[in-house]
User: What shape does this take?
Amino acid sequence: MNIKKIATAPTNGTNTVQYVTIGGTPTAGTFKLAGQAGTTASITWSATNATLLANIQAKMDLIYGATNTLVEDVSLTAGIGVFKITFQNDQGAVVVPVMTYVNSLTGTSPTLAIAIHSAGVEASFRSAQKGQLLLY
Assistant: This one.
């Protein structure tokens, strides 16, 4: 039997949440998001918020796996403003470094910015093998 003695009770940890801001006045183009799992393929910008969010989610799913990120509107208006990406499930309860981006948007001074909204906290004993007995 695989038993590991620990000093404290395990903790659940928290998910990392990052805010992405699209600024200026984009009218077309693409952008990429890059993180620890890789770089997305080009994400097509859309002035329709639901389409833009779906485009982002689809590309994030390809590099992080389906259901491991959640892309949600915070304050988008016609594809400009803030959306958030929550790292969850297999990517949850860990520290996820702030993503970077490649901006290929067109229009009047389109910008991108990414910031940590909620820093993740790693769950205790996340690497313990399934069924491993932890004693404290």
About this structure: The beta strands are 3-5, 17-35, 38-39, 43-44, 69-73, 81-87, 100-118, 133-135.
